[in-house]
């Protein structure tokens, strides 16, 4: 008997991370890491898919309401049809003419669509008995381009070009899958570098990062220049000359400030400067990149493929930082991976938060197998927070993500956490 | 005794406009014009401010939830303080670090902030006993720059440059106020041109528009090229050679399609092409503008001042189409008016929808008095829909907006409408 979708079961989950300054940076002094969580339930209680939007606290209830607004598009639909045509399913949600007005293709509504699409991919991978990266990596080039919405991309990437990229990457897929299974995928860690941490904690966590096998760490900057210089010197002393130190301003600066500040930090040779200014400022990123010696990275707040297209067209960045829950899910991220490949830029995903490590590892591994075919200059962010709440947490060994093997997208938060951290009535919050 | 804010009273109001194809275009076939409506209530029941976000139906409940999420920032606050420091009030909402994650500065959360800021301006103007345009037009240059958030703008417009623009425009303010009172502000009409209207209705409404004194009309295009050519010919025959016919593609095209389509329509000499592609595509608009002979207009979906800054820096448009409820309210629109003045581009606001005519007339009139000092090449859109629901509807005579004289921002929807069109329980909906 065929199954149908019965419910988008939404939950507002929040973690009181602000109590420890975990996640603190120049723009986000006191985040409470949160997930607007959705379970796509079906007429078979054993078959459901999990997805979420990562937020940092207030407004998580608005994000949940946006996810709920998508229920009429899916509830009652035949599950096989929805999952068999994930390109069409995605386009139907993204291009709903009335909901589109609330973006278009940006912000709360777009992220809600991303959560639901990701939950459907989780379910599709579970049903296939495969981890998501492998499900995607074993799809044909023709099936993969069908997932992509080329609207607004064709001046930079046509369907035919995308097909060529994917076809050219077909030879060697099996070898690269073996390579992933044997050696995992390189990571870097942001754990030492939160702005609210003391110098002692920074030094200690930096040393631990090296001992744990990481060859790249990242520090938050942009609060105060003298502090940033001191903190970079402390970190450099702790990690030695060969470990890369990236820095992240979290959108703190205007264009002239970014240029002046990064020129002042240049002697410390930062590996990249992340989010030097507004994520909307394509021309600003291009101007900054022209004026400084440090490579530029951005993307965690870049809201859709049209913005990534322009960042690449304008040669405004060196590293493409995709995010698993900012854009409209797996489908739009495949478009962005293809754009990055077309323009020859490495993808180094944003992670951390709640479950972003879990989700995004699948996209990088898929990229390695079936799109770029390369790990050169590519690293996935890793932050050692909140993984204990996931049914199948990301696993790091010697500074590398191990390959997920459990069927699905690794999105599932365990039931006990979903109960305890539910806002505002779960016991973690009602006790406060 | 001093007053304080007691409540953000939100309502989901929807009008069943899709039944008549009113508002139909190439991307929005069946809008139900809606307002996520907010009344900022105070400890004096006689003193409240009205604002809203215009949406086109589904998702209006998400927009309402986002407005409600702002209540903790305002409820309990001293009203005099909030209204005396509207620059600071605006920045406190826009830069809430946790809510900002949901944009940043875009989409549902940003529009919600706009509605609340606009409601506060409505209240401030009511208390001053002045229509909003006049309240703004009588503020000093120093007070006006204090309203603007220059973050991310300083590579294009500094506070000092803005101050110079406003100071240079001070002489003649009184004369221009008199000029406005005597002759109003020029309008154009979109009433004839909805895509769902028959050829006969298009011709009849086009003739009526000329008879009503309009010297510019606008047609929706982008569904089918042969239809667009036929419809432009019908409209041209109806209005004669001297009335401008602008066209609007509502984001229908990719960049290459926009160029080809507009070159095919060029013989009909459209006055402008509006929204030829994604509103996010700054470089795409610049490429289209370079390749066609028709001037380019955009802005109703441009989500913040950073995007307008770049459209101007990239010389990507000829007409700046501000929208009263897309960005973060009056304050951010003042920033955009200043940017347009700096780059020498005329502002021709988007209107229509629900109450957009009512709101945006204040911004154009303020611009004329205190910023650009000019009506040259400037027109405010007008659509003859839904004005009957407003307490002080926009008034058009001989193709011009008459100057609003009632205190406030003209945002107030009458109580009976707020009751009847409340979704889904108002009688207009519960009867369906």
What features would you describe in this structure?
The structure is a homodimer of 432-residue chains. Chain A has 432 residues and is an alpha/beta fold. Chain A has 2 domains: 5-148, Enolase-like, N-terminal domain (Enolase-like, domain 1, 2-Layer Sandwich); 173-417, Enolase-like C-terminal domain (TIM Barrel), CATH 3.20.20. Chain A is built from 19 helices and 12 strands. Chain A has helices at residues 60-68, 71-74, 79-84, 86-94, 97-100, 107-128, 132-137, 141-147, 159-168, 173-183, 199-211, 225-239, 255-265, 282-291, 305-313, 329-342, 356-371, 415-420, 427-430; strands spanning 5-14, 34-42, 48-55, 185-193, 216-220, 244-248, 273-274, 296-298, 319-320, 380-382, 396-397, 400-401. In chain A, the strands form 2 sheets. In chain A, strands 4, 5, 6, 7, 8, 9, 10, 11 and 12 form a 9-stranded mixed beta sheet that branches. A 3-stranded antiparallel beta sheet of chain A has the order 1-2-3. In chain A, helix 15 (305-313) packs parallel to helix 16. The radius of gyration of chain A is 21 Å and the shape is globular. The relative contact order of chain A is 0.15. The mean pLDDT of chain A is 96. At the A-B interface, helix 1, helix 5, helix 6, helix 13 and helix 14 of A face helix 1, helix 5, helix 6, helix 13 and helix 14 of B.
């Amino acid at each position: 008997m065929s199954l149908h979708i019965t419910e988008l079961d939404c939950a507002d989950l929040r973690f009181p991370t602000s109590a420890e300054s975990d996640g603190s940076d120049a723009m986000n002094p006191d985040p409470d890491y949160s997930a607007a969580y959705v379970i796509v339930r079906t007429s078979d209680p054993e078959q459901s898919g999990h997805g979420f939007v990562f937020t940092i606290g207030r407004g998580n209830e608005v994000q949940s309401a946006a996810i709920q607004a998508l229920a009429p598009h899916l509830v009652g639909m035949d599950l096989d049809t929805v999952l068999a045509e994930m390109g069409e399913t995605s386009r139907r949600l993204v291009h709903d003419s009335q909901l589109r007005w609330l973006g278009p293709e940006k912000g709360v509504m777009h992220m809600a669509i991303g959560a639901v699409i990701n939950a459907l991919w989780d379910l599709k991978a579970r049903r296939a008995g495969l981890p998501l990266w492998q499900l995607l990596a074993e799809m044909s080039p023709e099936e993969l381009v069908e997932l992509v919405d080329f609207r607004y991309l064709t001046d930079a990437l046509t369907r035919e070009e995308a097909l060529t990229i994917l076809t050219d990457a077909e030879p060697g897929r099996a070898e690269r899958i073996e390579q992933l299974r044997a050696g995992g995928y390189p990571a870097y860690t942001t754990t030492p570098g939160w702005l609210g941490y003391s110098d002692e904690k920074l030094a200690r966590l930096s040393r631990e990062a090296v001992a744990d096998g990481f060859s790249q760490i990242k520090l938050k900057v942009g609060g105060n220049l003298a502090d940033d210089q001191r903190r970079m010197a402390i970190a450099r002393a702790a990690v030695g000359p060969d470990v890369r130190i990236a820095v992240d301003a979290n959108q703190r600066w205007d264009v002239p400030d970014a240029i002046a500040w990064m020129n002042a930090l240049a002697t410390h040779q930062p590996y990249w400067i992340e989010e030097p200014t507004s994520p909307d400022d394509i021309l600003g990123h291009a101007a900054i990149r022209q004026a400084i010696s440090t490579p530029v990275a951005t993307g965690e707040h870049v809201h859709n493929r049209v913005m990534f297209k322009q960042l690449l067209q304008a040669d405004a960045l060196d590293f493409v930082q995709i995010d698993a829950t900012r854009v409209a899910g797996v489908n739009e991220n495949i478009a962005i991976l293809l754009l990055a490949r077309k323009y020859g830029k490495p993808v180094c995903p944003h992670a951390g938060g709640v479950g972003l490590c879990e989700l995004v590892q699948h996209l990088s591994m898929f990229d390695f197998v079936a799109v770029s075919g390369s790990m050169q200059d590519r690293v996935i962010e890793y932050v050692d927070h909140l993984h204990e709440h996931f049914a199948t947490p990301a696993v790091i060994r010697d500074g590398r993500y191990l390959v997920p093997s459990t069927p699905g997208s690794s999105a599932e938060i365990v039931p006990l956490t979903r109960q305890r951290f539910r806002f505002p009535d779960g016991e973690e919050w009602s006790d406060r």
